[in-house]
Specification:
- The protein has about 210 residues and is α/β, with parallel strands linked by helices.
- The chain has a 7-stranded mixed barrel with strand order 4-8-7-6-5-9-10. It has a two-stranded antiparallel ribbon with strand order 2-3.
- Helix 3 runs parallel beside helix 4.
- The termini are close together.
- The relative contact order is 0.25.
Length: about 210
């Protein structure tokens, strides 16, 4: 029997969000308790709320939007790699992957423990520019990380985003891998099909 791992944090008003992004808000729109014909919730959120996809359009005008991303990139075999430390550079990446060819990779770091907190944690682990370039050279098509940004904390100019999205590598951010061991899984990652959007929230699941 297959085992499923839901690696999307629950999305709600207390879910940590990038400080300059719109906060998540839930508002009652129609409520049975107040005479409505049904319960309907009004959501206010950004395209990068909760677990989400970054499409190339996020940093490159005129490039692919989230509704144009191919499903065969978002679904398929994925390698979960666990790396300690404050950032993932080329040396750490090559040591973790060795000679493996990976089409999709998710990084489990110290970040996964941060989902126990409601506040945004600034000192998260992420990819350096040289690690992102290494993944492009390895012809990786999808890269995921277990916090709000793929970038190494405090990096300027978003070099990892520029390198990955500039080479059409899909980015998946804000995953919770605390209950997942390193290894090979099947990834099922389905973002909302938002027309012309730079990104979209996604429910992300691993199957073993």
């Amino acid at each position: 029997m297959p085992v499923y791992f839901d690696i999307s944090p629950t999305l709600g008003p207390k879910t940590p969000a990038w400080p300059t992004d719109p906060p998540v808000r839930f508002e009652g729109f129609k409520e049975l308790d107040h005479g409505g014909s049904s319960n309907v919730l009004k959501l206010t959120l950004g395209t990068h709320a909760g677990s989400h996809i970054d499409a190339p359009l996020h940093f490159f005008p005129g490039r692919a939007s989230v509704d144009k991303l191919p499903l065969d990139v978002l679904i398929g075999e994925v390698t979960v790699v666990e790396i300690s430390g404050d950032h993932i550079d080329r040396e750490a990446l090559e040591s973790a992957l060795s000679q493996k060819d990976v089409t999709r990779v998710l990084f489990k770091t110290k970040n996964s423990a941060f989902w126990k907190r409601e506040e945004f944690v600034r000192d998260f682990a992420g990819l350096t520019a040289d690690a992102a370039a290494c993944l492009v050279q390895r012809r990786c098509k999808l890269v995921g990380i277990d916090y709000l940004s793929i970038e190494a904390a405090h990096s300027e100019g978003a070099p990892a985003h520029q390198e990955l999205l500039g080479n059409n590598v899909v980015i998946v951010e804000s995953l919770n891998l605390s209950g997942v061991d390193a290894g090979v899984y099947e990834l099922i990652c389905l973002p909302l099909k938002l027309k012309g959007a730079d990104g979209a929230p996604a429910r992300v699941v691993l199957r073993k």
